[in-house]
Amino acid sequence: MQPPAPTPAAPTPSPRLLHARLMDALKREDHLRKSKAAPAALAAAHEAVTDAMVAYDAAGFDPLEASVPHARTYAVRMHGGLLRHSVAQEWHEAVREWRYGRSAGRSMTALVCDLCGCLKVHYWFELTNTVTGRTIRVGSECIQNWHSPGIVTAINFDRKRLEKAHKRELRLQDLEKAAETDAWLRARLPKLRQTIEKYGKVFDEAEDRVRAALGQPPVKR
Length: 221
Ligand SMILES: [Zn+2]
Prior knowledge:
Layout: H1 15-34, H2 39-58, H3 72-85, H4 91-95, E1 98-111, E2 121-129, E3 135-139, H5 140-143, H6 149-181, H7 183-187, H8 189-199, H9 204-213
The chain binds zinc ion.
Zinc ion binds next to strand 3.
């Protein structure tokens, strides 16, 4: 009699699937936050994102392997920065000590990246070392070289969200400034402000007036 065939191990999901799963979780959490969902639903969505991030990392793919030393001195600096803050002293092991808890922001003044030491970080992302509890702030450029696809995907998602919020902020500032010289805008200021907060921009006529008041060329339509 033939011995029973060994049961094949469960196949690891493809990187594409893991990426799609994480993106879905991020979008869902974003949607719930925007629609002001109940705290319990938000907490569950947040946890789902963390799980998806960890699953993506745990699968052990290294899609970024080829992208690293585009500039040798930079790679060395970043490598050193990571090891200085980690317990493990080998790159791939050290990367595994870190988690991204979705703490991120945009700074008006340039910050220092704790990984590579560059001085031009405006969008910062906080990583926490699960072994030491230590926290570092890094720029989104450095993260592109981080060997952890879950963290990279989540940070890129958050960066887009922050950029959008920043753009909205700038539009609001432009509107306030333009309203100082344009009475038509001034009369509609609260309503226009709401429109920007909700949709990210104002309707065409107001946009043209804002630009004219600021001495900017009209938008081509
Ligand atoms: Zn950096």
